[in-house]
Design a protein that fits this description.
The chain is mainly beta. The protein has a single domain, classed as Beta-galactosidase, Chain A, domain 5. About 5% of the residues lie in helices and about 45% in strands. The structure holds 6-O-phosphono-beta-D-glucopyranose (BG6).
Length: about 300
């Protein structure tokens, strides 16, 4: 297993070629390639990577607020859309790799876990005053053959309880959105955010795309499968992440985003975002919470 890191990024590569690249700003995964060299994430070619705004693509981290601030939740009402975790530089904490040399096993079984941390000392004063709690976040990315796991541990290191929402805002690459469909959410109700948020009953059919789609599925228990051209391309398993946001901005909305490219890039992506966002989770002083997604690529 090889790890390289500099001031801005960490790159991990497995012996068989699987590779993940993470920007310290936002601890945003920018690229995940499976052993066959195929890129599994979508990154806008106009994404801004210098830390002046969140990254458009890869896996932005949403914490402690999902969506725009709401007056109805005063504790997060001063935060930017999707919170601050994607707007700050995280600390690289190191790696743990496992390489198996047992008889009959190849080094190709190797996997690596890389950890990133965030605490109030790393965040700007404006975020600290908007969200004045004592917290410690540990974000672990584990790269295994054809599999990527992302796990976020939230610790309340103070005495005062806080409430949070969180989500892995994963932009998956797909070959053509018109022949992409998502299964596993058929029996779940959802909040349809377009044109304005509306509670909607389960559709009892796979999700297909023919225009802007922005939905928050709640209480989802099954594994989610992204199908590309009639074949499963990605399976997402989740722990402690009951909600799934499915989003594609389509032509007009993506044209309005200055950091979105190429112009028809919306045809090549689908966001399937595992999270805990319908409600706020409450964490008492001294408690920790952990949520995880495991993404398997089908080749
Ligand atoms: C999705 C939301 O999770 O993120 C959408 O459901 C939103 O409503 C999208 O447009 C992108 O958000 P942002 O802040 O990265 O442009």
């Amino acid at each position: 297993v090889s790890i390289t890191h500099d001031n801005t990024r960490v790159v991990a590569t497995l012996p068989r070629g699987d590779r993940v690249e993470i920007l310290l700003f936002g601890a945003n995964a920018l690229s995940w390639k499976t052993g066959n060299g195929k890129e599994q994430l979508f990154l806008s070619d106009k994404a801004i990577l210098d830390g002046s705004k969140p990254v458009r693509g890869g896996i932005p981290l949403v914490f402690p607020l999902f969506g725009p601030a709401q007056e109805s939740h005063p504790a997060t009402a001063k935060l930017p859309q999707h919170g601050f975790a994607r707007n700050v530089r995280w600390e690289y904490l190191g790696k743990t790799s496992s390489e198996s040399f047992a008889i009959g096993k190849e080094a190709s079984d190797a996997s690596v876990k890389i950890d990133f941390g965030l605490s109030p000392t790393e965040i700007d004063d404006k975020f600290k005053s908007a969200w004045p709690y004592s917290f410690g976040l540990t974000y672990s990315i584990t790269l295994s053959p054809d599999e990527l796991s992302t796990s976020l541990q939230v610790a309340n290191t103070g005495t005062e309880a806080f409430e949070f929402q969180t989500l892995f805002h994963t932009y998956f690459a797909t070959s053509d959105i018109a022949s992409t469909h998502v299964t596993g959410l058929e029996s779940n109700g959802f909040i349809n955010k377009v044109p304005s948020p509306k509670q909607t009953a389960a559709a009892n059919e796979p999700i297909k795309f023919s225009g802007e789609l922005d939905r928050v599925y709640t209480g989802a228990e099954k594994d989610i499968i992204i199908n590309d051209n009639g074949k499963p391309s990605i399976t997402i398993k989740r722990n402690e992440l009951p909600d799934v946001v499915v989003w594609n901005p389509w032509a007009d909305k993506s044209k309005g985003m200055s950091d979105f490219g190429p112009e028809d890039g919306w045809k090549k992506m689908v966001c399937v975002e595992a999270g805990s966002v319908e409600k706020f989770s409450r964490l008492e002083g001294g408690e920790t919470w952990e949520g995880q997604q495991i993404i398997k690529a089908h080749l």
